[in-house]
User: Which sequence fits this backbone?
């Protein structure tokens, strides 16, 4: 067995990125994500990669997209205020279908908020932060080891589907130090984007293939394609023709739906006979896990549904599991965001209870246990 | 000399003709700048497959799409940021940025000064027509004092940037300016910029006849282009037109040059050293 290493969450993200083949990092310092940049600045030179600290968050997002268009896997990491600034170019990545992985280590908000305190306040921003309808994948690891595995998975999803992937975790997970198995590329399943083999004369850079994802052409290989954030046809050039726009936009927005089984991921704990279902992610899910164990010892039938892919939300799986529950409890470190999706998905008659902390502290197992006990008594 | 270079310059070899007719207004100087750029690319014998043109938003941003190369039309003000990533990831590509006065100096001003400071081997061509043409003619950071735009109905009261001085002060490897009247001179300046191993900032004095020219009674395209002479070579052409494009003299040609190390070369040299040192410490 290989030795395990004590690794900080943010460092695990950087190590996993390099193992997944990332060779370019552009970023801007921001608490509590800076350790990702720091680790990348020391790791990338060892593997012939490039690190650059840009002049701002907007520029770092632009630089990673430029590098990705050059055919290189990229990373950038930030927190709330920087994530707001990245939205402009994140939208470009969605529209121009440029693979990229963006880390958002959530801190208290809004605005400058509480830079060193944890939060889960960017649930909705991660999904809808950029203007217009756009596809985006959001993954929410809940441990250092899971940061490692989900970072690798983020690259695979982004490369295969040509969709930006946001790794969304709270400050606690980012700064947690846990013992993990640091794997190298040889131990990982890593996918690269689909490079086209069609001849340049016949290649249409935004034509759908079987999975709805267009193939890519690398600059320098003779394809000389055009990439734009303007609404574009299969040939890559701008169009405003209604029937063409409708077709290309439905293909773009349908990519994730078409590949749902690849994208969706979640974990369940003791859900089979659960009358009360807890839905939580990140550090709140770890408190919930403990609360489930304590409640079960007291013979309370409670289970945990933990989305790992937060967006698109693992809708079908949740609906099936929630069908047998009477009560659903949503503990989250914000004023109520994930609960909106849960309320939307629960059948009428299921009681959905919100549980929110917005004071910069983590939700504790005992708090959740108390709420579960109260729900059981009322039942 | 290769066969292409021997052949005379034929603009059609470098254009995406299927996109014609182009969208630029009659009299717009951007097309002249585009021709000069393609002529420079031809004379430098740059392989179109290895040419990457990154442009932003505005009239200038739309020029790039007509070039038969790898073209990226990115977000407003950000072409230098995208170009930085692209050039660092792919040093084998010839990366040229086409931007405008609003794109480069207003929303993208921060990216410009840092691109100059880093000195990465990118050629940035800023088409300066003194106005936001695409959005209908609003004031820009280079609009001449007292000129009318749709957002300065009483005349512009803000002083304008001297972008070349700005770029030189920020450390750009090569800085130059040219007018669209002097196409061979413009072509030669662009060649200098592309050849320079470092960041080259080139301001092209373009003209927006339809919106800016009309609003300020600057005449039609021939008058505006002729007046560039009076604006830039006032000692020689003082009396070419009654009303110069700009009422003050501008220098043209290569305005400054410094041969400090190119960013990516310096970085890669550093990386190689680091890797060699780490190999020494951990011999296989």
Assistant:
């Amino acid at each position: 067995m290989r030795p395990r290493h004590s690794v900080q969450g943010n460092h695990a993200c950087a190590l996993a990125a390099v193992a997944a083949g990332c060779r370019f990092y552009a970023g801007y310092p921001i608490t509590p994500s800076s350790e990702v940049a720091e680790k990348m600045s020391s790791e990338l030179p060892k593997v012939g990669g490039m690190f650059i600290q840009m002049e701002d968050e907007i520029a770092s997002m632009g630089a990673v997209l430029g590098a990705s268009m050059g055919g290189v896997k990229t990373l950038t990491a930030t927190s709330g205020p920087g994530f707001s600034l990245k939205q402009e170019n994140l939208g470009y990545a969605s529209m121009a279908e440029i693979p990229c992985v963006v880390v958002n280590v959530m801190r208290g908000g809004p605005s400058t908020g509480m830079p060193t305190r944890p939060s889960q306040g960017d649930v909705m921003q991660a999904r809808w932060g950029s203007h217009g309808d756009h596809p985006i994948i959001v993954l929410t690891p809940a441990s250092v080891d899971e940061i490692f595995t989900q970072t690798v998975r983020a690259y695979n999803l982004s490369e295969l589907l040509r969709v930006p992937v946001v790794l969304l975790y709270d400050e606690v997970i980012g700064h947690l130090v846990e013992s993990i198995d640091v794997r190298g590329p040889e131990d990982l399943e890593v996918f690269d984007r689909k490079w086209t083999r069609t001849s340049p004369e016949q290649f249409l850079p935004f034509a759908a293939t079987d999975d709805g994802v267009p193939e890519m052409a690398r600059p320098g290989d003779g394809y000389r394609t055009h990439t734009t954030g303007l609404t574009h046809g299969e040939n890559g050039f701008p169009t405003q023709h209604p029937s063409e726009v409708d077709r290309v936009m439905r293909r773009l927005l349908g990519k994730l739906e078409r590949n749902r089984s690849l994208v969706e991921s979640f974990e369940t704990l003791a859900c089979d006979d659960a009358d009360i279902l807890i839905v939580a992610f990140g550090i709140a899910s770890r408190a919930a896990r403990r609360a489930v164990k304590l409640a079960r010892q007291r013979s309370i039938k409670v289970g945990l549904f933990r989305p790992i892919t937060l967006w698109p939300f693992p809708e079908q799986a949740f609906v099936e599991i929630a069908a047998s529950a009477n009560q659903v409890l949503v503990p989250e470190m914000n004023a109520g965001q994930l609960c909106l999706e849960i309320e939307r998905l629960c059948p009428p008659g299921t009681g959905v209870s919100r549980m929110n902390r917005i004071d910069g502290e983590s939700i504790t197992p005992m708090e959740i246990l108390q709420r579960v006990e109260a729900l059981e008594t009322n039942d | 000399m290769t066969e292409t270079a021997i052949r005379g310059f034929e603009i059609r070899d470098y254009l995406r003709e299927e996109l014609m007719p182009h969208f630029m207004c009659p009299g717009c100087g951007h097309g002249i700048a585009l021709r000069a750029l393609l002529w420079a690319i031809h004379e430098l014998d740059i392989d179109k497959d290895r040419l990457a043109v990154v442009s932003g938003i505005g009239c200038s941003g739309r020029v790039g799409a007509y070039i038969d190369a790898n073209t990226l039309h990115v977000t407003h003000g950000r072409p230098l940021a995208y170009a930085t990533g692209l050039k660092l990831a792919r040093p084998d590509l010839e990366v040229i940025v086409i931007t405008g006065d609003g794109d480069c100096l207003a929303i993208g001003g921060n990216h410009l000064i840092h691109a100059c400071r880093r000195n990465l081997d990118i050629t940035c061509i800023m088409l300066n027509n003194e106005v936001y043409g695409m959005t209908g003619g609003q004031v820009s950071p280079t609009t001449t004092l007292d000129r009318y735009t749709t957002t300065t109905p009483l005349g512009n009261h803000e002083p304008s940037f001297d972008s070349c001085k700005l770029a030189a002060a920020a450390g750009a490897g090569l800085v130059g300016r040219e007018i669209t009247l002097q196409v061979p001179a413009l072509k030669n300046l662009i060649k200098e910029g592309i050849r320079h191993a470092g960041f080259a900032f080139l301001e092209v004095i373009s003209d927006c006849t339809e919106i800016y020219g009309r609003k300020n009674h600057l005449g039609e395209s021939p008058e505006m282009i002729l007046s560039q002479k009076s604006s830039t070579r006032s000692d020689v052409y003082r009396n070419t037109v009654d009303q110069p494009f700009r009422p003050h003299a501008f220098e043209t040609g290569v305005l400054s040059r410094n041969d400090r190390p190119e960013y990516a070369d310096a970085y890669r040299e550093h990386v190689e050293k680091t890797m060699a040192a780490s190999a020494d410490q951990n011999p296989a």
In short: Residues 208 and 214 of chain A are 5 Å apart (CA to CA). Residues 267-378 of chain A form a domain with the Rossmann fold fold (CATH 3.40.50.920). Chain A touches chain B through 44 residues (CB under 8 Å). The mean pLDDT of chain A is 97.
